[in-house]
Design a protein that fits this description.
The structure holds 2 protein chains of 2 kinds. Chain A has 10 helices and no strands. By secondary structure, chain A is an all-alpha fold. By secondary structure, chain B is mainly α. The chains are: A mainly alpha, B mainly alpha.
């Protein structure tokens, strides 16, 4: 084969061509797709460059940016921690926040706040029990028992400080709600939650309160209906059913 | 933007067939040739869109194509590329008369032989005899002296002749 013949054969390969449809479609695709990307890229770039330029122009704003970023990060962590359950990684963050909330509360209001916290812990435990989250169960029970213990402590203190009918009424309602929820959780878990200390404190709290209230009411002038309620309260008190005795007193006084 | 689109259209219409053929002869698969050719022109469009001044579109496009082909082989170095003609019996057990006749033709023989010679020889032969690029133009694309291109072209033809004989 001569060189001329070889070149002639090579030139026959000129027949190779792409399909006309592909040629048209590819061109359209490149132009249309790239236009779309272009707009998005330019928008993103302009936003980022504007943001950067603000802090580039004013170097003193850099610490401010760092503070804002840290603050946003902290808020984000706290936000995520709100949904954390006992045994979760972020639960300790949630607990710190809960403790911080209790710092400024007076001793008189403490039982109420502690009861709210106990209710929250019970809600967490209920959620864990319902969703069958085995690994969170033991820490959640511990949290409930701990909250109950702390509530008992605060109730002991408040019983010594002063008596307040309104607070007593709120406490009674919350204690009843907690008891109900506790029973529900115990049914789901088929296990008992240790609330002896809380029960004892609540009982003592009711006892002291009812005792004082009865003494006060005995010195007051009462109508026949009130006299009847006071009598019933005294009977319950003698039977050591302080909860019912308090119910009668509260009905009579508030 | 409209100006860039016009520039791109002009370049695309002028070079799409040449680039497709250049790529096809080197990768020997229609799908790969289409993908790589499309990528070549996407990069051209991106460059125009960024405001790059393309002084010599021909050299620019061939450079992109050559780089993409090199990348393609680098990426697929672990995958053994087998020409479709060489695995006819695996690909299709049914006899295809059209394919058989194609295989026997000079056209296909030259194509196969071209695939067997050095990539550098392939580039220069395709550019010179198929895409009608002059020796100085090829020298610019390949960043090599003209004499070197002339010598390489001569050697390439010899190598191709050997493969065909």
């Amino acid at each position: 084969m001569t060189e001329k013949e070889l070149i002639k054969k090579i030139k026959e390969l000129k027949q190779i061509e792409p399909s006309k449809n592909w040629v048209v479609l590819t061109k359209e695709n490149i132009l249309s797709e790239e236009k779309g990307i272009d707009v998005i890229e330019k928008r993103q770039k302009s936003f980022i460059s504007e943001l950067i330029s603000v802090f580039n122009l004013k170097p003193f704003l850099k610490p401010a940016l760092a503070t804002i970023v840290s603050f946003c990060f902290l808020i984000g962590i706290l936000g995520f921690a709100q949904n954390a359950l006992p045994g979760d990684l972020l639960y300790s963050v949630k607990k710190i926040k809960e403790k911080a909330n209790l710092v400024l509360i007076s001793e008189t209001d403490m039982p109420n706040a502690q009861l709210d916290l106990t209710q929250k812990k019970l809600n967490e435990l209920t959620k864990i029990a319902e969703e069958n989250k085995g690994k969170n169960l033991a820490p959640a029970v511990q949290e409930v028992e701990k909250a109950m213990k702390e509530t008992a402590e605060s109730l002991k203190k408040v019983a010594l400080i002063e008596k307040d009918g309104k607070i007593a009424k709120e406490i009674k309602e919350k204690v009843e709600a907690i008891e109900k929820q506790k029973e529900t959780v115990e049914e789901i878990l088929a296990t008992k939650i240790n609330s002896e200390e809380l029960d004892e404190s609540v009982n003592n709290y009711y006892k002291n309160l009812v005792e004082q209230e009865i003494k006060e009411l005995e010195d007051r002038e009462l109508n026949s209906e009130q006299e009847g309620l006071l009598q019933e309260a005294k009977e319950f008190f003698e039977q050591e059913n302080y909860q019912e005795a308090l119910a009668k007193i509260l009905f009579l006084s508030y | 933007m409209m100006d860039n689109q016009k520039k791109f259209s002009k370049i695309y219409d002028k070079y799409i067939n040449k680039i497709y053929r250049f790529v096809f002869l080197k990768v020997d698969s229609q799908e790969t040739a289409e993908d790589l050719s499309s990528e070549v022109f996407t990069r051209v469009w991106q460059s125009l869109d960024k405001g790059t001044n393309i002084e010599n579109p021909q050299a620019f496009i061939y450079k992109i194509a050559r780089n993409l082909i090199t990348d393609h082989y680098r990426k697929n170095s672990k995958i053994k590329l087998v020409s479709i003609e060489n695995c006819k019996e695996i690909e299709d057990n049914q006899p295809n008369l059209e394919e058989e006749s194609l295989l026997k033709s000079d056209f296909n023989r030259v194509k196969l032989a071209l695939n067997k010679i050095k990539p550098e020889y392939q580039d220069i032969i395709i550019c010179h005899y198929l895409d009608d690029l002059s020796i100085p133009e090829i020298a610019k694309i390949m960043n090599k002296p003209k004499n070197n291109i002339r010598v390489t072209l001569h050697r390439g033809l010899k190598a191709l002749k050997r493969e065909l004989s």
